[in-house]
Amino acid sequence: MKLNFHINGQLHSGDVDRHVSLVDYLRDSVGLTGTKVGCGSGVCGSCTILVDGKTTKSCRLLAMEADGSDVTTIEGLAKNGELHPLQKAFWEKNAVQNGFSTPGMIMAAAELLSRNADPTDAEIKHWLSGNLSRETGYQQVVEAVKAAAAEMRGEGKTTTEGPDNTSIGQSPKTRKTRELVTGEAKFIADMSLPGMLHAAILQSPHGHARILNVDTSAAETMPGVVRVFTAKDTEGVMPMPVIWIPPFAESHFLPHPSGIVPGSHSVFAKDRVRFVGDQLAAVVAETRAQAYAALDKIKVQYEALPLVLDVEEAVKEGAPQLHETAPNNILIETVFGDKEATEKAIADAEVVVEQRIYNQRLMHNTLEVRGVLAQHDPATNQHTIWANTQIPYPHRLLISLYVLGIPYNKMRVIVPAMGESNGCKGNLYPDTPLVLWMARELGRPVKWVDTRAGFARNTAQSRDQVQYVTIAGSKEGKISALSCRALSNVGAYPVINAPGQPLALIGRSITGAYAIPQACYDIKVVYTNKVPTAPMRGSGRAEAIFLIERAIERFAREIGKDSAEVRRMNMVPKDQFPYENGLGWTYDSGDYETALNLALEKAGYDDLATQKAEASERNKLLGLGIGSYVAVAGVGNSAKMGGEGLMSGTWGSSYLHVAPSGEVAITTGAQPHGQSQDTTFAQIAAQELQIPMDYITIQHSDTDLPLYYGQASYGSRSLSVEGAAVQKACRMIIEKARKMAAHLFKMPLELIEYKEGKVIGTPAPEQAVMTLQQISLMLWFGWDLPEGMDPGLEATSYFDPENFNFPFGTHVAVVEIDRDTCAVDLVKYVAVDDFGTVINPEVVRGQTHGNILLGISQALSEETRYSPENGQVLTDDFDTYSIARADWIPVLELHRTETPSPSNPLGAKGAGDVSNPPVAPAVVNAICDALSDYGVKHIDMPVTPEKIWQTIYQDKAS
Amino acid sequence: MIGYTYAAPKTAGEALALLRKNDAQAIVSLQHIAEFKTIKMDDAGCVIGSRVTLSELKQHSASANYPALTQALASISDPHLLNHTTMEDSLNASDIELSSVTAALLAMDADVVIVGDEMEEKYAFSDFLQTDLTHDELVAFVRIVLPDESTSSYENAGFLSGSKPICGVAVARQKNADNTLRIVLGGCTDKPVRLQSVEAALAGKELNASTVDAALEKIEGEPLTLRKDLPIGEDYLRHLIKALTKKAILKL
Fold first, then answer.
1. Which of A375, A896, B54, B222 lies deepest, with the highest CB count within 10 Å?
2. pLDDT digit string (tens) for B133-149?
3. Please, is A755 exposed, middle or buried when counting C-beta atoms within 10 Å of its C-beta (0-12, 13-18, 19+)?
4. pLDDT of residue B95
């Protein structure tokens, strides 16, 4: 039908099919890609626009329903180049990280402010509860909406200008943010190339089945279909590799034809599917709709096989076997620590407490799904992919060497603006090389962007570990031993770094912030018919800290002591650093007790009894929970990582080039996806080089940039490793500039000072002075160089820390539980974190909010559920997989102490994901505290009202 | 795309004329019928046009007279849903997202007015739920009698899932000698249902925790058909129904 409506003030006419949603029409037909698609079912709010001024989820409206209306998208909010107050405020208040959810949030807030000029925090949170933010959290969003409201009332002024002081410890405005608040940034789904085709990939409806026949004939005749590919077409494509092989453990990997590394799953399952994300066929068509329509016509005959989803079932005799190479479905089996000595210490202890814990299976559930756009140029044999991956350089190597067998130098990986990751985009998935391979086969660019339901089946999930924990000690509270026997569910195949999380990251971390004389971790990593697991924000440390913080709480209750006091008694004292924790980590620096005391003071710990009594009068059970933590970060020392089994160097890298104009370009090995390295690394360089930050450009996201290798961003490593490499490159530049100046000024090197962006010969500072730009020009000419010096003011630096770094802190949660409904209300949250030296406090604050949000969500609601009948993922949308919304979260009170790390010259410790681990235990400890009168000792996450009700009423009744 | 016609009539008469043609290829938008988009208050109560959005209703002063409706609307936080759901949509008893409003309307004994070919007919909402409209009939209005002050309430459990209410209870006191209650359960049932055994047990009684607890025992005898697709187990759901009903009643 014919459509006539206004879009951003302009009359628009067009034809539209009656089935097309408004968001698809705006994005595909009008080209307004600032409106994002997150779920397609109206739950996440990423597609929010205004229709006649009303908040509208454009995936839930047909385009034809907009006929005659006035549509405003994020692109229409700024007027005459001037950002809307909301856009400015989101930027100013650091309410933007990766920016994927930002346009929808801003548009929803726009209607709120048109109705309510001065909304309260509660009103804003209520209004925005239809807009999800996974990694950014909600607090800065609320602050931004209030700031914008104030400006619109004429009572305040937001600005796009940052403070003049950009030095370390200040918070200049984040870079590359304007394009995120205006919707101009191009994410993978927003990209297109001339002649581009679209792919759709068929997944298995069975968790475990034999493939009898794949019939693509009907699909091949569907409109627009160019080709349908199946396993018979991809004989020459190798399976995914695994590049983490622990040398100290018994392991049962899958073979890989390279003979260099083990293998994982193939781009298409050949004769058997082992989980519902196993791929069977791909359709490539002229449009996305045609590709998905044809996908429905592929007929596959299966013979269902017995399933195994539970790790404890999978290791039993007679369980369905997933791989011939792995008897009893065990991928890896090993022990960390001295098991015998730990068992003896437990046997000798006065008090022993045991607890089984199931750290549930989570989904990363980024609002942005994964996607790939690939192109092959037959004239040059150049292969290029654009993908929303955390690890472009490893993609280049792994795809070229291990999967497609193409020249490394003909492979380029580019990362566009990237939505959230939470860790799931740090893996190599079979779809990625498949899309590139199909583009080469067809001679046309091919794009594949997943669906929300597809994501639930093909994208790695996380956690899913059963733990049998034993903690032992004296009646006074001194802990003497900790043991954990664990089974980790790795899913149907190992991902590239599968062993990392269940082995070292948990196994060496289980003693947390405490000095425990004997500890051991006995682990089996087990195959099941579930989606493969991979690291997720807080990876490994989250499982470890949860178990120790629950265990110490249980122990304290058992001996009738204050759990805060038991923590104090056992914490590593501040004069004991560096501290060997007995499991392989050397804690670098810290003052754990100060953080604990500060958190308790801020949470009103001394006043707890009064708070409980007051809540009880309102029919509420109040509880306070503590989560203290130490989290390894800053991967890492390459040799140590090699010792763990990672087949990769993990050094930071940086290439710095000073142009003859004086402009500085720094290529970093980091891979930003919301962490603001463009800003923080420029702050480091500006401080080191003593030049304005505006002179400095940070480059990344393209393997054709002048950098040998980039180990990327994960596990809170960017600043302390890649940032340290930037600092080192700056110092190398200064050194070269000084040497050049010494030569030109004919002075000894020790008399050349570098100050305020200039080299100065101290004996004659008025005459013997050159700016960095002048020196770079002299080096550009290279007419007169010191002996042995090459021209050009550039440096390549590498930084490999001698040790990891160990951020720490204590979080405190206060909950109220309704006695009747058992609903949990998080009423207070205090976090004290120590990330060492902080470059940009506002950036770190934002990351901390994201960590806390995820932890609350894990504690209270998130859980991936599977059908026991067919292994299907049941939680494949945002209704069935419930993540924390704005109105769940109280004001998060954040505090920091600052203990520099000796592991890097910046003194920085990780921050990106490390403050997640204490959150879930703090919340669960609070719930168990609230329920202590009922004798509740433990409830597995997610602690839903139903589980609480069952525990305190039903179990008692039975 | 080819073959479909689209029309957006401005009056109910025009819309009915188009609908009478019964053309399967015709798309008739009811968005622009002004008479269906008004809210009117008079001494007898409130008349809400079928195309009035929940957002418009929430902002209208009339809704303040109906606490159950106000509280039900407040439980819907997603502005999209409020902006794009009409009164007529909320009469769809099987839509769990709108179950709060549906339950409130049934508790308040709302009437639904249907227009068709030279006819206008009024149904009690409970009867409307049993009625199938023909292709040339339209819901015109919902009428709610003006109640006494603060005689209705709504409670729901909104903390359980992503965005949908799982269980909600609306309660309204009726203007009769016994001040009997209409208690309606929604969300967890296929359609909103009255808890008549509890209503009967409370007839003429003072409302306090013990009388309500005693009356709630009668729920066991209610032939409730609970939805099977909820993310909670039946035992807890049955507990919630009681807990929420009690809260809603004691809030009156």
1. B54
2. 888 899 999 999 887 66
3. exposed
4. 84
- The pLDDT value given to residue B2: 46
CB A868 within 8 A of CB A119: no
Contacts of A953 in chain B (CB under 8 A): 239
- A539: pLDDT strictly greater than 90: yes
pLDDT at residue A164 in the model: 77
Q: Which amino acid is at A206?
A: H
Residues β-bridged to residue A13 = A4
Helix (H) or strand (E) holding B167: strand B167-173
Cβ-Cβ contacts under 8 Å for A207 (sequence gap 6 or more): A273, A274, A275, A276, A307, A309, A529, A530, A866, A867, A870, A871, A872
Q: Please state which CATH number belongs to domain B36-145.
A: 3.30.465.10
Percent share of chain A, pLDDT over 70: 100
Instruction: Give the model's confidence band at A636: pLDDT under 50 very low, under 70 low, under 90 confident, else very high.
Output: confident
- Rounded mean pLDDT of chain A? 96
Which residue reads 């604990």 in tokens?
A596
If 0-12 CB within 10 Å is exposed, 13-18 middle and 19+ buried, where does residue A792 land?
A: middle
Instruction: From A800, A806, A781, A805, select the one nearest A791 (Cα to Cα).
Output: A781
Of A916, A936, A942, A763, nearest to A853 by C-alpha is A916
3-state DSSP percent of chain B in helix, strand and coil, to 5: 35, 25, 40
Contact A820 B246 (CB under 8 A): yes
- Which chain A residues are within 8 Å of B246, Cβ to Cβ? 820
Match 């009893």 to its residue by tokens. Answer: A328
Q: Per DSSP, which regions of A548-668 are E strands?
A: 579-580, 586-587, 620-630, 652-658, 664-668
pLDDT at B1 over 50: no
Residues of A whose CB is below 8 A from B233: 946
What is d(CA B1, CA A309) in angstroms, rounded to the nearest whole number?
A: 46
Q: Could you read off the pLDDT of A100-145 as tens digits, one per residue?
A: 999 999 999 999 999 999 999 999 999 999 999 988 899 999 999 9
The tokens describing A447, both together, are 């794009």
Convert the pLDDT of each residue in A441-498 to its tens digit. 999 999 999 999 999 999 999 999 999 999 999 999 999 999 999 999 999 999 999 9
The candidate with the shortest Cα–Cα distance to A740, out of A706, A767, A691, A780, is A780
Characterize the bridge pairing of strands A446-449 and A197-203. parallel
pLDDT grade for B237, boundaries at 50, 70 and 90: very high
Q: Where are the alpha helices (DSSP H) in B85-142?
A: 99-107, 125-128
- Interface touch A950/B236, C-beta < 8 Å: yes
Please report residues of A whose CB lies closer than 8 A to that of B27. 1, 18, 64
User: Does A824 contact B159 at a Cβ distance shorter than 8 Å?
Assistant: yes
Question: How many Cα atoms sit within 13 Å of A885 on the Cβ side?
Answer: 27
pLDDT surpassing 90 at residue A617: yes
Alpha-carbon gap: B215 to the closest alpha carbon of chain A (Å): 17
What's the confidence (pLDDT) of residue A168?
94
Asked if residue A131 lies in contact with residue A44, where contact means CB atoms within 8 angstroms, the answer is: yes
- Domain assignments of chain B as residue spans, ordered by start: 1-32, 36-145, 150-250
Q: Under the phi-then-psi rule, with left for phi > 0, alpha for psi from -120 to 50, and beta for the rest, what region is A836? A: left
Axis crossing angle, helix A919-930 with helix A841-860, rounded to the nearest 10 = 50
Residue A379: pLDDT above 90? Answer: yes
Nearest to A886 by CA among B166, B63, B126, B163: B163
Residue A448 Cα distances to A38, A205, B168, angstroms = 15, 20, 42
Q: Which CATH architecture has domain B150-250?
A: 2-Layer Sandwich (3.30)
Tokens coding B105: 């309307």
Is the pLDDT at A955 greater than 70, yes or no?
no
Q: Which residues contact B119 (CB under 8 A, 6 or more apart)?
A: none
